[in-house]
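Reference record
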Amino acid sequence: LYYVGGSDRRLSLFENCFPIPDGVAYNSYLLMDEKTVLFDTVDYAIGRQFIDNITSLLDNRKLDYLIVNHMEPDHCSLITQIITLYPELKLIANKKTLGLIEQFYNVDMTERTIFVGEGDSLSTGKHNLKFFMAPMVHWPEVMVTLDITNGVLFSADAFGSFIALDGKLFAKEVNYPRDWIDEARRYLTNIVGKYGPEVMHLVGKVLKLDLLPKIKYICALHGLVWEAENFPYILDKYLHWATYTPEEKGVLLVYGSIYGNTESAAFALASKIVEKGITNVSVYDASSTHVSYLISEAFKFSHIVICSPTYNLNIFPPIHE
């Protein structure tokens, strides 16, 4: 199994919405079995690198299967190029996926698509793949693929993160609690945060089917690869985020201020909270902090204080957002 994705450090806003000062990775994986299998494509921004990676690895071999776990354009933008390069390939997809492919690209792949549903399997030679539906994590067509042979879960957007890879591929190769967890939380809570019940359904499905002992690696479509020894850490975080359970006892204090008066009140309140013995306090100015960071922090802390002046008989706009 080879990593054939890449990192993007030129993009300033993910989904043209969320700041990514440390970039982002678009992950894709190529399985070299008796049949060759590509798991998803990437964003068009790194298309040249992606095509180079695949053609170099395959050399003169053909690509037999393209598995589409998620149809968001940052993971499917190269589908037509891959079909052009390897016209004999077959798509592995569910019924909802094919509808999106036809809408996005105006190509008819019906005759070359192998449809899969909940629990279906596919043999590629030595490897046996199993498919599970994960709707609304975070698009309606999302599914995940488990390679039973190697114990690799291709988890779509679940367990992903912002941040470019910088040559590192595994979570154990970085100081995750120090350097990555804030961006992993910001990624999950802003993009998938409203779908907590759906995330829990997917996690519950893995546990109910007793799949967890079979999983040795989690390969997400963004971020680093997780190995079994690190599962408890990231699963614990996901269970907190998906059930809206605070990670820490502390106070998030967000204020908006037009002329500085509400700011003064917020600082005074922060001091009073600390005097009461709660030192885990984070204060943010909503006018100078992107809302995605505030949403992430809201998932982290047990208590939230929001201070707003009145603006045109309503909430101050940055606070309203």
In short: The longest strand covers residues 248-255. Residues 261-275 form the longest helix (15 residues).
